[in-house]
Design a protein that fits this description.
The protein is an all-beta fold and 112 residues long. The chain has strands at 3-7, 10-12, 18-25, 34-39, 46-51, 57-58, 67-72, 77-82, 91-97, 101-102, 106-110. The model has no long low-confidence stretch (mean pLDDT 98).
């Protein structure tokens, strides 16, 4: 049924950029708000970015001004553009659709 598949993670130097993608299937993508979460070792999963079905976005202060969430409803794809990356951004990043649908996650490592 509902499937969310993340891609685009990897190793990047501090100050670098990375773009994550989430391919969605099994539902009418354009009807749903979507979000990105991340989970670092020893920490709880936290919201990184949120986007409504019509494109309004919300970010926590920790990533505001550096990360941009977007969506292409024609391609059923969610994106997260990450700029000015910091070591604290190192985590597994997950795509999410309410109420309880998650992707498998993609690892982002920010290190010299």
């Amino acid at each position: 049924q509902v499937q969310l598949v993340e891609s685009g993670g990897g190793l990047v130097q501090p100050g670098g950029s990375l773009t994550l993608s989430c391919a969605a299937s099994g539902f009418i993508f354009s009807n749903y708000a979507m979000s990105w979460y991340r989970q670092a070792p020893g920490k709880e999963r936290e919201l990184v970015a949120f986007i409504t079905s019509f494109g309004s976005t919300t970010y926590p202060d920790s990533v505001k001004g550096r990360f941009t969430i977007s969506r292409d409803n024609a391609k059923n794809t969610l994106y997260l553009q990450m700029n000015s990356l910091k070591p604290d951004d190192t985590a597994v990043y997950y795509c999410r659709r309410a109420p309880n649908y998650w992707g498998q996650g993609t690892q982002v490592t920010v290190s010299s």
